[in-house]
Every structure is written in structure tokens, then in C-alpha cells.
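Dear support,

Our group has been running a series of protein-ligand predictions, and this particular one with ribulose-1,5-diphosphate is the one our PI (initials K.S.) wants archived with full inputs and outputs. We had some confusion internally about which version of the output was final, so please treat the block below as the authoritative record. The input we submitted was:
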Amino acid sequence: EEIMTCSTVEDLGEAIRSMQIRGSGAIGICGAYGLYLAALVSNGDPEAVKEAGVLLKSTRPTAVNLMKTVDEMTAAIKGAGQELIEVMEAKAVEILERQLAFEYELGRNGAELIEDGDTVMTHCHSGALGGAGYGGRALSVIRTAHEQGKNIHVITCETRPYLQGARITAYELKKFGIPHTLITDNMSGFCMSTGRIDKVVVGSDRVSANGDLANKVGTYMHALAAKEHHIPFYTATSSHTIDFETPSGADIEVEMRDASEVTHLKGIAIAPEGTDALYPSFDITPNALISGIITEKGVISAPYSTNLKKVNAEADKVSQ
Ligand code: RUB
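Confirmed final output from the archive:
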């Protein structure tokens, strides 16, 4: 495993932009530690820390955790005085520890939905490297069910064009010793229609106030197929990823990435030169297709507008 070093906030921003660090949980943690890094390299200059927050927030627009952790760190600048470096360090550690605790809790809540013998499909990578600890969000549910002794099998989707499902999810499933099968994204309908999938659990980059879900592009298509085949479709998230400022999925900004990431694979052209291509990095799954939203506070079911608010009322401070 290669270790990458980011010595400046610019390095970190570039690492996020270029997908060296990705997944909503991981980039949220980068928001926190990025501001701590800015405090260190500027020798405790509050303006430099605020600027670092603006830079980091601009790297990827869809995942809300990054916005929230930067805001939380920025709010802590006020009143820090001479102790800015220490305050930033303590806050970043608090945010990381909270995220790990939430991942663990939501994993336990979600695992209750998984039965012995289930085959669970997931998309992209919502896993250990993402959340840094117990298993990210979707993988936390899967890993907890596996560790409870349930005999489960995972179908991981390749996730074109960045192949997170093949490169990272399959790697982590192997590491955790969880039996799995890799499919390309266009095989989920076949697998569902032939009884090969019992449940779908995906991560989330943002859940709007009405329960619409922004997650890696392809998620919507899997949710549609799951609905048609009466297969429960869950997102594993946390109260921090629920964005009450955003009324519905239509209001979520979907990051559009460079089309060359579709026309080229590791620098090799896979389409004729000049081919027009599109790369929406995420898509929106309407709440009607979601069977439940798994959080550290429990599994939330429809009607989401009402039930998510109840969770918010309980989450008196932002959580991850
Ligand atoms: C990653 C993605 C993941 C969510 C949740 O997209 O869509 O499903 O971020 O991940 P990208 P986690 O690779 O473009 O960042 O549960 O690890 O936060």
C-alpha cells in the first residue's frame, strides 16, 4: 500500500480533486485535518486557515461532509486566540473520532437488516479506506453482518469510469475475508431478475431533507431495478450526511468531471479521438426508491421529510 504525503493544503486539495483521496467520509476528514494542516504551516494564522477552508470546499461540490467539517473547523477559529494550532488539532481529532463511532453504530443498525444467507449488492466504494476506520458506511453494515457470523455474499459493482468497486471495494472485501463477486455496472438488472441479489446497500454523498440520495453515478439505475424486483434498497449514511439546507435532490449540485475520464482508461483511449462524452460523477435516487436510510441513530423509513427531521432534532450537534 502506497503512502501519500500532503505537506500543504494545496497538495491536499489536489489529492482530493484528482481522486487520490475520495469518498464522502474520507474527504470530510480531510476538511478537518486540512484546516489543522493550514494552522500548522501558517504558524497559527486564522486567515490562512479560513482560506484553506475555501480552497478545500471548492474541490468537490456534491459530498456534504466536506462542507460541514470545514464549517465546523472554521467556527472553532473564533475564540481560539493564540492556541489556534492546538484548537484545530483537538477539533480535527474530535471529528475523526466521532465519525469512527458513527460508522461503528450505523454498521450495527444496518446489520440488523441483513439476514443469514443474504447476497448484498453494493456500488462504488463506501468502505474502510473511505471512513478510515471500521468499514466506511456500506461496508460497515456488510462487515458487521459478516462478523456477527451471518453467512453473506457481496456483489460489488465495478463502477465505471473510476472502477472504485473493482479496485477498492473488492480489495477491502478480500482483506476482511468476506466472500464476494465482481460484476460490471450493467449486470445488476440481470443479477436481480435471476434472484442473485437479496438486498442493496450503498453509501451516500448527500441526502437532501426529503430523503433523496446523491451517490456515485449508477446508484439510481440500481435502485430502479431493485424496485422492479422488490429488492430492498438501503443507503448507509450518518446524520452528518443529511443536508437539511437542501430541500430535494434537484437542489443538489452534481459534480461534472472531465469527459476524458470516460474516453480514456488509465491514459489509454477507449473511444475514437474527438468522441463527445459526459461524466456526471453522481446521480440522484428519489426517496420513493429507498427502503430505509441507515444512520448511527437507527434505520429511518418513509416519510423521510418528517422522519429525518426527528433525527435532526436529536442530533443537537453535527455528527458524521
Ligand atoms: C464515492 C461514493 C461513495 C460515497 C460514500 O464517490 O459515491 O459511495 O462517497 O462513501 P467518489 P463513504 O469515489 O467519486 O468520491 O461511505 O466512504 O463516505
